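Crash report, auto-generated. Payload:
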Amino acid sequence: MLKDHLERPLSSLRISVIDACNFRCTYCMPVDKYGENYKFLPKNKLLTFSEIIRLIKVFVKLGVKKIKITGGEPLLRANICDFISSLSKIPGIEDISLTTNGYLLADKAQLLKEAGLHRVTISLDSLQPHNFQKIIGRKYSLEKVLQGISAAEQAQLFPIKINVVLIKNYNDKEILDIVKYFKKQHYAIRFIEYMDVGNVNGWQMQQVVTSKEILQKIEEEYPLVAHGLEYGEVADRYFHKDGIGEVNFISSVTKPFCSSCVRARVSAEGKLYTCLFATEGHDLKCLLNESDDEVHKYLSNIWKNRSDRYSEERSSTTKKNKVEMYHIGG
Ligand code: SAM
Ligand code: SF4
Ligand code: SF4
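Recovered output after restart:
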């Protein structure tokens, strides 16, 4: 089995299909930085779906079993359902999921399901319209995202995971409201610690609401049972004691999980990143004229030489020019 320098296999791939987004989340693309002037890739620079499918087939031969479709906002990419349909026909893939801000999901959930998507993760950081708009940097309707989530439920895109990023003095008063709202069968709320990804968000440690703080708050009202963190997964899982719903913690700042990081990431322009906090990607687009064997060899060499463990080294490094989250999709 292909393993990197730290004995980690390659079993999961996040593929970004677009870098553009209709939101301007304060922790990802803050409006005060470039406003509307974020520079996104022109359409002709995006990998085509057939190029992505070809690359994925090679990744599957290297051991990848789980594919996450992300962005930017993946539902902005035209013909996404056709892509998922081709993806779902590749033998060896066990899990196909998509992460979205949910704004365009209501009309697409059923079509995504029919195309072969297994499940969906929706990012939603607030249930208060004003707070929601402040965080996403847009005067958009929260209701539309909630309708998207209901549509995902109707389409049975289970389990439905709700990604929540808390930022001190923004939305950290909403923990219990969010837990209450999504305490349902087939749902998992995932509190992700605010991370120092990229350069534009001006991240500061004081803004991070730690998983420990969140867990303490939740346990004031809801008894939880610890399930734990499985190898290769990022979420430390807790179940509600009454068996209805679950709460997860992704603690990449306070409890890094680099030792079991089995994910590769490919950006919409076709760069391979072996860490979320990388500064450079490996260009795969220029490989597309080569044979599958050559692509296989190239990818396998990159993985074998991988030794990334940024989150474990965070306090002793001052990395600049890290790739932005909207380029590689989380
Ligand atoms: N646009 C889609 C969405 O928001 O779900 C997919 C791409 S987005 C980059 C993927 C995930 O990254 C989202 O759940 C978002 O909350 C998370 N994210 C973005 N910036 C982050 C940061 N600085 N720290 C923690 N999570 C972040
Ligand atoms: Fe867009 Fe997702 Fe980034 Fe928010 S987190 S700005 S929705 S890419
Ligand atoms: Fe993986 Fe890099 Fe995150 Fe560590 S910091 S878990 S190596 S993506």
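Post-recovery validation: The radius of gyration is 19 Å.
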